[in-house]
Amino acid sequence: MPYQFPDHFLWGASTAAHQVEGNNTNCDSWVMENLKGTRYKEPSGIAVDHYRLYREDIERLAALGLNSYRFSIEWARIEPEEGRFDEAAMGHCRDVLRTCRNLNVTPVVTLHHFTSPQWLISAGGWESEDTPARFARYCAHVMSQLGDQIPYVCTINEANTPIGIDKVIKQFQQGGSASAQVGMNMDFQEQMRNYYAELSKAFGLPPQEVHTFLSPRSEEGLHIIFQSHVEARAAIRQVSPNTKIGLSMSLFDFQSVPGGEEQAAHELHEEFLQFLPYMEDDDFFALQNYSREIYGPEGLIPVPGDRERTQMGYEFYPEALENVIRCASKHLNKPIIVTENGVATDDDTHRVAFIDQALKGVAACITDGIPVKGYLHWSLLDNFEWQLGFSKRFGLIEVDHQTQKRTPKPSAYHLGKIARTNTINTV
User: N or C end of the chain: smaller count of CB under 10 Å?
Assistant: First the structure.
């Protein structure tokens, strides 16, 4: 199948700091992974040792033919105690960016990817009215020193994810079943109450006052997340005016059968449309998609038994990406960068097929004039998938968790060939 993409298209892959770097000991997730009765299958530990091996990982990305790397900077490393910024951690980030520049790889940087400093959670976390100012201060510190090396920055990864978590909780409370949505294998009820008791001890707060980014959200808490984006954007513009700023959102392709149209429209509003005012002044939209959801008169329809499921429980449906791009473009008149799209599977031939179908949809959108500026596959490396541990395989590059040996999969070479065939220019 021929691909038609513009010059300067960003071809790349993505990672998140906590999922690949290892020994992120000052963040909230580290606490939760190591608690008695933890809901995590296993702790992250050294993850895939990317904090030490980042140079060869980025070299591998470039050698494949990719020209862009999306990664995150870890707030808990930069500001391990409130108001104290770690210059060694900043130096590490500076060298990651230098490595990208030397290899002609365009960095797309995310400043918050799910994990937060432990001190922030003890200070009220993502329900505290002080969090937007604290987050903006951190972003300003990073971008004042590194912004001239960062052409694209996402303030927050998947700012709407807490909505999906609330849905999973409600499904369990109502006695229903839920797939491993949003990467969290959530088993609540009595075990969860015991877990939160341990969590409250760790952060010195009552259980109901422990508010990590991935905790259930109040309406005010949702506002705090998006207001953090607004204040961070303003702070970044002051210190790094040439950096393009966006927000990352995770969206399903919301579909319906007769009788489910109103419910599907409600889900789109709840997860995307209600937040459009917060993004009006952004420079681009960072879009993330993995599958679809289909709604009927009774609500969400389970994935039919004859449809392939991924390791995450999603329906294998790469066609969703085109639909979500078209939907986002209709409602938000901004350039789009696909910052995550991929599939968890041990069968790499399915990953190749997923990439082909997803890119066919991206190309169709571009042909129709939608300004899609890049496709960054999730993920570069097999990594730590939060509560599910290391068992889910999203990577273009296989990682032996025992030896840390890297082996590019056929899908890595496949995506690299597509990139080289079309363009390897960077922005």
Answer: N
